[in-house]
């Protein structure tokens, strides 16, 4: 069976390799596991809630229509941190391709979490496409403004929790020279470091990254994750480190920050704006490519 559906989740198994799988919860259309040849690539907290009681701590939560908590914007200020997509149950739309195995999920204002749509009364249609390749996982989003009258403005972000062997031996490449905003010190600057490394809590939004820059996560000189972006100009790099992990009830084990790194491609530093009827598409592709330093 290449597609198994239960009440709460979908498991895709690669037709040529039963050890390559992706599991997607209907809640949040959250990818909670991606195994390549039997090896898990994503980090999922041992205390993650998978029962729809709160957004999943780990995997690939989807952030829409607001990144973080935006108090300054009239339209989104009442929404909780990271919006409504990650805490709504999406509809499974079924298989759209058998090779590569591809499925879709949908969300609009009529089925989204009513507690959230009471706070943000826009009309929208989201289609998430998940494609399981033999050596990659592609997640693509289409946002449609389904209103006849109003513009739709939103942020989008794939909040990808990558599994890493040891954060202290891990770095992120190909962000050199990019403008960024450090959310901890609340300052913008151009990152001149040859690579990003981790010795403390890190929460940085890289903005308008050259589209051809391919972000790689490198551990002890070996590339362990490649994150490709289509139409996603920004990327957040986040590791909560010791104190922040301790403060998150659903973050377990408490030293789990050593094994994870969030690299989150998105469109967050400005809103995407769509006129009535317009559509916007963007894609994240995770793979394990050869090392390619594009900038040092
Ligand atoms: O705890 P959450 O709402 O899931 O947010 C988790 C994290 O998401 C992003 O990476 C933000 O940049 C962080 O500031 C935030 O702490």
UniProtKB/TrEMBL annotation:
Binding site for substrate: 57, 81, 86
InterPro entries xrefs: Aldose_1/G6P_1-epimerase (IPR008183), G6P_1-epimerase (IPR025532), Gal_mutarotase_sf_dom (IPR011013), GH-type_carb-bd (IPR014718)
Active site per UniProt: 159, 264
Any one GO molecular-function label of the UniProt entry: glucose-6-phosphate 1-epimerase activity
Gene3D superfamilies registered for this protein in UniProt: 2.70.98.10
Catalytic activity: alpha-D-glucose 6-phosphate = beta-D-glucose 6-phosphate
Family annotation (CDD domains): D-hex-6-P-epi_like
Family classification: Belongs to the glucose-6-phosphate 1-epimerase family.
Protein name: Glucose-6-phosphate 1-epimerase
């Amino acid at each position: 069976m290449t597609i198994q559906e239960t009440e709460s989740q979908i498991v895709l198994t690669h037709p040529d390799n039963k050890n390559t799988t992706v599991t997607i919860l209907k809640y949040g259309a959250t990818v909670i596991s991606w195994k390549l040849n039997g090896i898990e690539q994503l980090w999922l907290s041992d205390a993650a809630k998978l029962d729809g009681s709160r957004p999943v701590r780990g995997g690939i939560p989807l952030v829409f229509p607001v990144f973080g908590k935006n108090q300054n914007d009239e339209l989104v200020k009442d929404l909780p941190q990271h919006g409504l997509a990650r805490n709504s149950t999406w509809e499974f739309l079924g298989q759209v391709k058998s090779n590569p195995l591809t499925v879709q999920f949908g969300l609009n204002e009529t089925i989204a979490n009513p507690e959230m749509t009471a706070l943000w009364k826009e009309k929208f249609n989201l289609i998430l496409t998940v494609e399981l390749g033999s050596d990659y996982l592609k997640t693509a989003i289409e946002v449609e403004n389904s209103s006849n009258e109003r513009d739709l403005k939103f942020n989008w972000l794939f909040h990808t929790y990558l599994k890493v062997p040891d954060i202290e031996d891990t770095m992120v490449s190909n962000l050199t020279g990019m403008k960024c905003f450090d959310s901890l010190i609340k300052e913008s600057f151009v990152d001149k470091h040859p690579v990003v490394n981790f010795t403390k809590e890190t929460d940085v939004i890289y903005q308008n990254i050259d589209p051809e820059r391919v972000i790689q996560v490198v551990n002890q000189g070996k590339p362990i994750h490649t994150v490709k972006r289509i139409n996603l100009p920004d990327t957040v790099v986040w590791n909560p480190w010791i104190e922040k992990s301790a403060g998150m009830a659903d973050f377990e084990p408490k030293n789990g920050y050593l094994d994870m790194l969030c690299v989150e491609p998105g469109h967050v530093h400005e809103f995407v704006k769509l006129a009535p009827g317009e559509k916007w598409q963007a894609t994240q592709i995770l793979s394990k490519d050869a090392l390619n330093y594009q900038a040092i």
